[in-house]
């Protein structure tokens, strides 16, 4: 019997001794933290079998970072139970840029607790503890975890339904086999353990000093208010101390750009408690910004062949049964309103009513593509815990459009819409983007949340993918991320500091035309069913504004700025002269404010700078005598003695050409 086996390492065939581990294959590269075997991530302690395909996963890759962060979550839990022996464990998954772990403790964690826990974690990391995987039966797990009530509950969720039952549960009991990970000290003694699916880094040494605890917050067990409230600790972990510092610097910059803070400073919008969470109100300056965006996208739609429509904010409940929203999207809709036994729903989508407009008269193939759009405000029943300023709201105003086309016209219409979307993003200064293709879940319980046949989904997905590939942009797969009625392309845009935001969407819908009985008369006289293409260019105007505020740090380009020019007289004697200049600018369509307050000139300049207006115009004696003004720009530079006519021309040209300054 041969003592050697053949495996495939990163595509190359290799002969190794039986009993060889993945760690032995990659021993010379300390960046390798886990391996991918047969498409699945495994610990480096995995013993290789005949014919297996093995690929290294580096600590700097997304999957490697997720494993590092999950391992760091285990170190946190160990430190918590050392400091708080009565703490009971919840769930501790990796998340974007970090991890969290939930604990049942008597008192909420304090900032001082987090500092103490960080020190305890560093000691565990420095000990170089190793992670050992052990398969256990359900009964063995229940015996070992008898003192952990939340872990016992997770055992009952084992399998594919774990993530549906509790966020993050799949990292613990997502497979068919339960496993426990023991932490071993240098003598091989078990010092701690946790129910976990894994994999983990080989040793805590790899966590090094690239981690930090960020904050703590309350969180209901399994996300339900009916369950006990636990204490969640959030942390972050990176491949190196330098990467951690870069991340913290990005966070500091993101805090400086936070649209909630800037919205208050610039007097754009607010979130009154009396109105309710997730329901912003726009102040005059914010409303100007919003109207500028609406005017822009209105004209773009008209130029692209769309007809404007309007629809009510609510409708009889039966309409949303027909559309499929109540059967498939009920949790996202607001509760019903009862009008003498007739139930109404506030709309979560505009498309059902657009379908009724299409159906209001007979249609011919000669009319197609038939395109509708509206600024439709819809309402989503978002949980209060996920609301975040303008970027996650309950009131969503969409520049919502629907194109009704023949099947043959669908590829060209999708390309038409994608070109529209990309041009819009570029005009708003978002020119770094890629595409994401969201498809339905192909297996498991979530598969039943999508309607339509496999053939319909395959055809729709293939058309979207073809257009996306032909665009030449990077295309990323998003399995399971489609709407219930069809696949979609979304444009993922990166902002000025590299964060990614989902912006515009284009969705292929073969279901609603069938559910509403939509037809058109074909060239051969037969009645055919159109295809419906959904598209939202801004996606949500509220969210788009929030992204723009952060992208520009409140310093909007001239065409978007709520106040485009602030006029500052050097002294009161020049108020009248600057009024005349402002009148000329207003006559040219420029938004101008004058500071005619009693403040001293230096304070007026500081206030004007804080307003983040693109142009500050200053007028003193020399300016007035020469019929000129002095410019002060946002970067602090200045240009003196500019004739008024030239100043008006410079500003109006910057606005007209959508100059990014």
TrEMBL record:
Reactions catalysed: tRNA(Thr) + L-threonine + ATP = L-threonyl-tRNA(Thr) + AMP + diphosphate + H(+)
InterPro entries according to UniProt: aa-tRNA-synt_IIb (IPR002314), aa-tRNA-synth_II (IPR006195), aa-tRNA-synth_II/BPL/LPL (IPR045864), Anticodon-bd (IPR004154), Anticodon-bd_dom_sf (IPR036621), TGS (IPR004095), Thr-tRNA-ligase_IIa (IPR002320), Thr/Ala-tRNA-synth_IIc_edit (IPR018163)
CDD domains xrefs: ThrRS_anticodon, ThrRS_core
Annotated EC: 6.1.1.3
TGS domain span: 1-58
GO cellular component terms listed in the entry, alphabetical order: cytoplasm
Pfam families given in the database record: HGTP_anticodon, tRNA-synt_2b, tRNA_SAD
UniProt KW keywords: Aminoacyl-tRNA synthetase, ATP-binding, Cytoplasm, Ligase, Metal-binding, Nucleotide-binding, Protein biosynthesis, RNA-binding, tRNA-binding, Zinc
Main location: cytoplasm
Gene Ontology BP annotations: threonyl-tRNA aminoacylation
Residues holding Zn(2+): 351, 402, 534
Entry similarity comment: Belongs to the class-II aminoacyl-tRNA synthetase family.
Subunit comment: Homodimer.
Name of the featured protein: Threonine--tRNA ligase
Organism annotation: Ornithinimicrobium avium
């Amino acid at each position: 019997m041969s003592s050697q086996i053949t495996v495939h390492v990163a595509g190359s065939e290799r002969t190794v001794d039986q009993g060889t581990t993945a760690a032995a294959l990659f021993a010379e590269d300390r960046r390798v933290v886990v391996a991918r075997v047969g498409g699945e991530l495994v610990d480096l302690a995995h013993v290789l079998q005949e014919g297996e395909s093995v690929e290294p996963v580096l600590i700097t890759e997304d999957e490697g970072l997720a494993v590092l962060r999950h391992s760091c979550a285990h170190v946190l839990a160990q430190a918590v139970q050392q400091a708080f022996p009565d703490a009971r464990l919840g769930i501790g998954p990796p998340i974007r840029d970090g991890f969290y772990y939930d604990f049942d403790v008597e008192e909420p964690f304090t900032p001082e607790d987090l500092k103490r826990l960080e020190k305890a974690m560093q000691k565990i990391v420095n000990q170089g503890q190793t992670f050992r995987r052990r398969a256990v039966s359900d009964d063995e797990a229940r015996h070992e975890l008898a003192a952990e009530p939340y872990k016992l509950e997770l055992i009952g969720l084992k399998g594919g339904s774990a993530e549906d039952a509790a966020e993050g549960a799949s990292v613990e009991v997502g497979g068919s086999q339960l496993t426990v990970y023991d932490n071993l000290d240098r003598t091989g003694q078990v010092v701690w353990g946790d129910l976990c699916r894994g994999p983990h880094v080989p040793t805590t040494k790899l966590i090094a000093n690239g981690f930090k605890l960020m904050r703590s917050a309350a969180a209901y067990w399994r996300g339900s208010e009916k369950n006990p409230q636990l204490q969640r600790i959030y942390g972050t972990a990176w491949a190196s101390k330098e990467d951690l510092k870069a991340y913290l610097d990005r966070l500091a910059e993101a805090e400086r750009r936070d649209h909630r803070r800037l919205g208050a400073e610039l007097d754009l919008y607010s979130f009154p408690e009396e109105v309710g969470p997730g329901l912003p109100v726009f102040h005059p300056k914010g409303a100007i910004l919003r109207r500028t965006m609406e005017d822009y996208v209105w004209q773009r739609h008209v130029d692209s062949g769309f007809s404007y429509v309007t629809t009510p904010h609510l409708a009889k409940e039966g309409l949303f049964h027909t559309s499929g929203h109540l059967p498939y999207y009920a949790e996202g809709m607001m509760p019903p309103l009862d009008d003498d036994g007739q139930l109404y729903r506030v709309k979560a989508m505009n498309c059902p009513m657009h379908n009724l407009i299409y159906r209001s008269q007979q249609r011919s193939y000669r009319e197609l593509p038939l395109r509708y759009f509206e600024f439709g405000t819809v309402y989503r029943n978002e949980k209060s815990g996920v609301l975040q300023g303008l970027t996650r709201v309950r009131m969503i105003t969409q520049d919502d459009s629907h194109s009704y086309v023949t099947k043959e016209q669908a590829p060209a219409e999708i390309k038409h819409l994608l070109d529209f979307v990309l041009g819009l993003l570029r005009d708003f200064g978002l020119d770094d983007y890629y595409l994401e293709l969201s498809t339905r879940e192909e297996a498991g319980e979530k598969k039943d949340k999508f309607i339509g046949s496999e053939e319909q989904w395959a055809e729709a997905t293939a058309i979207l993918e073809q257009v996306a590939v032909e665009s030449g942009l990077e295309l990323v797969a998003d399995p399971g991320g489609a709407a219930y009625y069809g696949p979609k392309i979304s444009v993922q845009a990166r902002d000025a500091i590299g964060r990614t935001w989902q912006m515009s969407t284009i969705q292929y819908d073969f279901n609603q035309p069938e559910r509403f009985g939509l037809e058109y008369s074909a060239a051969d006289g037969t009645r055919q069913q159109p295809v419906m293409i959904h598209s939202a260019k801004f996606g949500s105007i509220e969210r788009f504004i929030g992204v723009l505020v952060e992208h520009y740090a409140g310093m909007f380009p001239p065409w978007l700025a709520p106040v485009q020019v602030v006029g500052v007289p050097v002294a009161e004697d020049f108020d009248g002269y600057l009024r005349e200049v402002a009148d000329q600018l207003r006559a040219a369509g420029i938004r101008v404010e004058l500071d005619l307050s009693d403040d001293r000139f230096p304070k007026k300049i500081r206030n004007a700078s804080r307003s983040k207006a693109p142009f500050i115009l200053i007028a003193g004696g020399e300016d007035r005598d020469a019929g000129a003004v002095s410019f002060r720009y946002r970067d602090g530079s200045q240009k003196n003695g500019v004739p008024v006519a030239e100043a008006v021309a410079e500003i109006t040209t910057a606005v007209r050409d959508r100059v990014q300054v």
